[in-house]
What we know:
The complex is a heterodimer.
Chain A: H1 8-23, H2 29-50, E1 57-62, E2 68-72
Antiparallel strand pairs in A: 1-2
Helix pairs in contact in A: 1-2
Chain B: H1 9-22, E1 29-40, E2 46-51, E3 56-61, H2 63-66, E4 78-88, E5 93-103, H3 106-123, E6 141-145, H4 150-162, E7 168-172, H5 180-193, E8 199-204, H6 218-226, E9 231-235, H7 243-247, E10 250-251, H8 255-262, H9 266-303, H10 311-327, H11 331-350, H12 352-357, E11 362-365, E12 368-370, E13 381-386, E14 389-394
Parallel strand pairs in B: 3-5, 6-7, 6-8, 8-9, 9-10
Antiparallel strand pairs in B: 1-2, 1-4, 2-3, 4-5, 11-12, 11-13, 13-14
Amino acid sequence: MTDKKPSFEEDLAKLEALAEQMEQGEMPLEKLLDAYEKGAKLAKSLEDRLKAAAARLYEVSQKKDGSLAVTESGVAKQEPLSDGTEE
Amino acid sequence: MNTRLTLTVEELNEYVRKSLAGDPMLRNLFLRGEISNFKRHVSGHLYFTLKDEKSAIQCAMFRTSAMGLAFRPENGMKVILRGSVGLYVKAGSYQFYAEGMEEEGLGEIHLRMEALKKELQAEGLFDASLKKPLPLLPKGIGIATSKTGAVIHDITRVGWRRHPGIPFYLVPVKVQGEGAAQEIARAVEMLDRLDAVDVIIVARGGGSLEDLWPFNEEVLARAIFACSKPVVSAVGHETDFSISDFAADLRAPTPSAAAELTVPQRDQLLLTVEKLHARTRRACEMALAEQTAVLADLSARVARQTPDKQLGVIVERVQGLKRRITLLARQEMQRKAQRLSELTMRITAASPKATLARGYAIVRQGTKTIGSVKLLQQNDPFTVLLSDGTVEAKALRIQEDAQ
């Protein structure tokens, strides 16, 4: 786990800034294509982070030595989405 | 003659009832005492005796008033009633008709709460400038609440409906009674240490002020304030504010609302990303269309057989771009790239022919067109394009023109 990895909103802000910069119409084509590639990578990374599979509920407890234990919990589970989604 | 006034029992009771009802002193008053002989009738009305050390009075509270109570009265509870004195004509007994009931000591609790609030506020625990922003897309959400009860279900159900890829990390805690505040505070501290979590919800469902008390305790407020990750409080119902609410980075009116505030709608974010990506693509397409027009112009000039010194440079650039573009995975880009490559071919292949036939040559190294001796070194191989074929050659001696 590195803290250096930019957060979702940081990357989203980068992509937005890139789009705005590209739309100014002042970038030479070369730079534009560079920017496009960079943007495509950002978009892919953002999408990947959004498309994580169904997640679970875990229970966290503290062991005697103070470290944390994480176990899957049966308290609540994701149910398959029904058509009549209630609000 | 009988001058004595003789009344029926009913007449007397009715007279006393009216007298009591007419006395403003006996209307809308507050009465303090302890509940005993408490009975809840099937009709929903409450009957009990209110007593103090020296005296007692029968009390009734009708269903419509009893329904609004925030707590369950029971024997031994010290309360303050609001209501009127009346006479139950049928039994000839006078009683207290209660319309409101509060647990005694509540006033004191409120005072304590206000004092603590003032103290913590003065210390800066509620400062708006110190509130931490919530992550747009949390990697994991920590929850400190009871393992039983509706809260954990409400949060996960709403959260997963918005984004099924969000994991929740529950630290099961006691949410009311002795030691609950310490337990919740410790849970916050544990979740703060858990790397998988980047936002924490502290929650419990509605209850009496007494039930919600742990969320008004200093130890929890300080733990929430000390937490390095943003904390959302979701305690009780919309109208109940607790000290935790003020210390938290964000207050949610209900546990479900906490899930809505912390979990983004996945589809919406996907759409946002997609739209931004489309904007970068459109910007490229527009620039490419412009460049294509320039190339068309250029190819027209070449077609008019103007030997152009810049031709090699431009061809090289176009080819460089072409290579770059074909690397791009997007279909639209590839379509555009194809258009460019067609144009490039027309320029490199068709147009110089007439020029080449007049004795000009194009010098290339690989796909690179060589327009200057500076681009070659001794013994470099290169290709010479003539009007009807190519010659593979080698640079034997290189001499640059004197400036």
